[in-house]
Amino acid sequence: MKxxxxxxxxxAVVLMLAAPAFAWNFPWAQKAANKLSTQGSTTVLPxxxxxxxxxxxxxxxxxVTVSGGGSGVGIAALIDGSADIANSSxxxxxxxxxxxxxxxxxxxxxxxANDGIAxxxxxxxxxxxxxxxxxxxIYSGEITKWSQIGGTGDAIVVVSxxxxxxxxxxxxxxxxxxxxxRTDSLMMASNKEIAxxxxxxxxxxxYVGLGYLSSDSKALKVAGVVPSDATVLNxxxxxxxxxxxxxxxxxxxxxxxxxxxxxxxxGQKTVKETGFVAIK
Amino acid sequence: MPTHTGMRKNLIERMLPIIASVSMLFxxxxxxxxxxxxxxxxxxVSLQGFLFGSEWIPTAETPSLGIWSLMVASFYVTFGAILFxxxxxxxxxxxxxxxxxxxxxxxIKPVMEILAGIPSVVFGFFGIVFxxxxxxxxxxxxxxxxxxxxxIILGLMAIPTVASISEDAISAISKDLRNASYALGxxxxxxxxxxxxxxxxxxxxxxxILGVSRALGETMTVLMVAGGAIKIPTGLFVPMRPMxxxxxxEMGEAVVGSPHYHALFAMGLVLFVINIIFNLIxxxxxxxxxxx
Lengths: 280, 292
Known about the structure:
The complex is a heterodimer of chains A (about 280) and B (about 290).
Chain A: H1 2-23, E1 35-40, H2 45-58, E2 63-69, H3 71-79, E3 85-88, H4 94-102, E4 107-122, E5 129-130, H5 132-140, E6 157-161, H6 166-176, E7 186-188, H7 191-200, E8 204-209, E9 217-219, E10 221-222, H8 229-233, E11 240-248, H9 253-263, H10 265-273
Parallel strand pairs in A: 1-2, 1-3, 5-10, 6-7, 6-8
Antiparallel strand pairs in A: 3-11, 4-8, 4-9, 4-11
Chain B: H1 4-38, H2 47-52, E1 56-57, E2 64-65, H3 68-99, H4 102-117, H5 120-138, H6 147-171, H7 175-183, H8 188-199, H9 201-217, H10 220-225, H11 243-251, H12 259-291
Antiparallel strand pairs in B: 1-2
């Protein structure tokens, strides 16, 4: 009995000590004018990181932090005020806009780069090209063997990004168009894992951002078009999407400086160097 | 008359329960957060539909939020992991406690500790690069990223838990018991099987249950090697998506406040409850042992 009283007393003391902490504005959490935080899509992450580094070289005062977490996390961070810029590989959702408005936040998006999604297969695969309909049939499970589409016998191992990722959402929209993904497809947490799995699995098919293409796997023509910077820019390659940075209202101050830098010729050079497609 | 050191000792003694209660507070905080963030999911799905619904398509226009396939996957990889960890862990415990010379013991124990200290992402990487291709070739599978590979790696990770707790239990058996067994004419093997193992069984059960908790809660490895398919698994050799992998893989992209987001927290709550149950069972075993 005595021990329990002691414990309750101790817990009360901790609570009393801890309570004011929730009310304080910690001095080290105060925002400085030269600090900027960006958060969101892991697809945008390599661009944002390279751009932030280049930007900070030019502006010694600026302190830009970049973190990932995913498009949804970035937009949530923008809405609750913990990030100044949300990086997103998809347009903001209607639901998110509604949530933002209730908190007095007005998300405004700027296109900072383009991303093409390449369909890749194992290097040993004879298939060179697929139509959008064939892709849809493969990913929805109507076609299950390579021999059905001009390849050799092996069963098709469908590899996809996690259904919650921005890349999946775009693929879902551009390829599946409402059809349900094969339930036994492998779900990978990153572009790199997809590329690695396809490179090691003879019957695999996957999709990755153009920036993740390498000689370890083979990129297919989609609807007769080779995925490349040029075909994404001129609109002939169908599996492409814009990448966004969202700010609260039109970009201002340091956020405006950073975004202006990214869309400038120098910034777009960095975009290309990180494996993405420039906006013009 | 209180001396200076006496007062200080007194102060420290008073501080200790406060410090101890901090971790208690964190546990309560986590439990409350889990419960309150989980509950809104039941606006979109019934408890039964959530636990036993067979479809997990959280990002569709009207999301399907049934976690049955994920729970079955968790069960498969955990059960598979114990099939690996139990013989290997118990075997090495018996060896170190009963047979090995002190010198050998000095080697095995630190090796076990290193095995326990390897980050799970390293295990996952090892699984992708090394184990999965072997499993694929050996069993003629379409892909090596499946429940079986995850079970092997999780089993490896659970071995130190099973081995060290079993070994403590076996070492704690008194010498008298062994001597009595030898006196009855039993050889070393018969003594281990008929006297030592039965006497240490509560400790061994405890080690299994803690090994199960370890495998069930492991995240990074299963996210990397289990394959992630959302179909209800029909065996160990197909790609599957255990609950922890779903939470880790999807939380980053779930819209905060959406049914998907709450469903992931509810899944966390399910894991939390299962783990508490396992810990309570392990505790019961421990108590039972003390009463003997």
